[in-house]
Specification:
With 275 residues, the protein is α/β, with parallel strands linked by helices. The chain has helices spanning 12-18, 21-25, 43-53, 77-80, 86-106, 125-143, 157-167, 178-183, 189-196, 230-239, 255-272; strands at residues 6-11, 30-35, 58-64, 110-113, 147-151, 172-176, 200-205, 207-208, 220-221, 246-248. Helix content is 44%, strand content 17%.
Length: 275
């Protein structure tokens, strides 16, 4: 059986409040810590989290959020998400740098975020400005010995690769979210693995469908009920020598979320048995 850590996304707030019991009850010993509220990325909370995690749960990366408006659609998303909107850029750059310093305190190697709807046209001033902004944040990460990872979905695979090439640093990685590529209508996730290649340092195990109109994202589904072909996806990842975590993401809450995470874990284990 091909050995890959299977984990889930968990918020920093819940870990600090409730510990790792929820993860361990699901039989998971890996997680990506989600920190939308960067105000709590303090030295004290880093120390507390290290004590909570101990040797029982490993952190694949810190997912760092940013302040300001967030509209997850095709109309207002480009003007509100990530580092693309100029009016929110500086404060968000500072939030990401704070996340990098927190990750360093935790002793982990990667931070991850959505940088927004990367401009498709590389000849625009907007594109060049975004490249400079990301390079600044990624340079901070590099000085701390960290990788800066782009979560996929809001741009085509080729646009993301071009952006990474234009930034020109060697500490840039990709957090592949196969469902996002479908939800945003940007690409086939199996084909995208061959475009991203060995740049992939993390994977979200999430499923979904393509959009059905030009304003709203497609629908997220439980793993196995959407359009992501997970057997083929894992086959391509393994062919590229992927050794990172498989982090289950189900963007609902309550008992159904836990049920869907358990089903996703079983699906992954069944696929990996074949390798």
């Amino acid at each position: 059986m091909y050995q890959l850590d299977i984990g889930a996304i968990v918020s920093l707030e819940s870990l600090l409040k409730d510990g790792t019991g929820g993860l361990e009850a699901l039989g998971l010993h890996s997680c990506q810590v989600n920190a939308w509220n960067t105000d709590i990325l303090t030295e004290e909370n880093a120390s507390a989290l290290k004590g909570i995690l101990g040797d029982s749960v490993t952190v694949s990366s810190l997912w760092v959020g940013w302040p300001g408006p967030k509209v997850w659609d095709f109309v207002d998303g480009p003007a509100t998400l990530g580092l693309v909107p100029r009016e929110f850029r500086y404060v968000r750059m500072e939030a990401l740098k704070r996340g990098a310093r927190f990750a360093k305190l935790l002793g982990i190697t990667d931070i991850t975020t959505h940088v927004g709807f990367l401009p498709e046209n590389p000849s625009t001033t907007e594109y060049r400005e975004v490249v400079i902004a990301i390079r600044d944040v990624a340079s901070c990460c590099k000085s701390l010995g960290l990788y800066f990872n782009f979560e996929t979905g809001q741009e085509t695979p080729v646009t993301l690769v071009r952006t990474i090439e234009d930034i020109g640093l060697d500490n840039l990685g990709i957090n592949l979210d196969p469902a996002n590529l479908l939800l945003y209508g940007k690409g086939n996730p199996v084909d995208a693995v061959d475009v991203y290649g060995d740049r992939i340092r993390g994977v979200h195990v999430k499923d979904g469908r393509y959009p059905t109109d030009g304003r709203h994202l497609g629908q997220e589904t439980p793993v196995g009920e959407g359009s992501v072909n997970f057997p083929r996806l894992l086959d391509r990842l393994i062919a590229h020598g992927y050794q990172g975590a498989l982090t289950i993401e189900r963007e609902i809450s309550g008992p159904k979320q836990k049920e869907d995470i358990q089903k996703a874990k079983a699906i992954l284990e069944d696929i990996l048995k074949k390798y």
